[in-house]
Fold:
Amino acid sequence: MVPPIADMLAAVERSPEAAGAHDRDGWVALFAPDGRIEDPVGSRPHVGRAQIARFYDTFIGPRDVTFHRDRDVVSGSAVIRDLTLEVKMGTSVTMTIPAFLRYDLDDSLNIARLQAFWELPAMVWQFARNGVGALPAGLQLSGALLRNQRLAGTAGFLAGFRGATSRGKRHVGALLDDACAGDQVAVKRRLGDAPQLTRGDDERIGTSELVALLHGAQWDGMVRAGNVTVARARRDGRHLVVFADVATRPTRIRGVRVFADDQWT
Structure:
């Protein structure tokens, strides 16, 4: 049975609260015993509370992280949070990272899976633009990665550089342009016959329903993580999040999942 939406949102909110308070034990305890973190999506997952604790020690504990939330979308047992992360890395470097976080909750409102969709290459470029002022923070992060994640974990984190290309983002952007314009013929042409289209994770929809959901909306905020490209869409004050699974070589969209509030029709 899916918990009430208010309870799910309260459970999710405990994560930024614990992170902001630097409450390591409290933050780790929010996860199920076999909980899983993919941050960013495309990197090596952290599974189980021991690995999640080391994730905290590497990426959260040494920094001040502020969660600037835009909107939450609840679908089934998942909460999709559209936000910007403000990460202070020492005294001279503050990073601003557009992101989408997906929290999958179990029946006890523990976090079974946390997926963070943000662009590692863009973050590294933003970090590098700080010049020599970024050197102490860079050395601290490198040391924490090697100390807590070892060589295998560090390589696993760097795997977040792989995945969908800029060409893939343009492909998804063109699809969203066509869908928001209500051009069903163009959407069918871009998708071909293979993709799986769903509202949420499980409700199968067709091309016509996808176009109906997006027609008249405005989209923005696109990020790519691993093989997934994510964007938000807004219409009449309501919020929708689109996840597109993008293959490379050749570039094609393998599937689209749309998450929207129940009021979105």
In short: Residues 5-160 form a domain with the Nuclear Transport Factor 2; Chain: A, fold (CATH 3.10.450.50). The CA atoms of residues 184 and 208 lie 7 Å apart. The first helix runs from residue 5 to 20. DSSP finds eight helices and twelve strands in the chain.
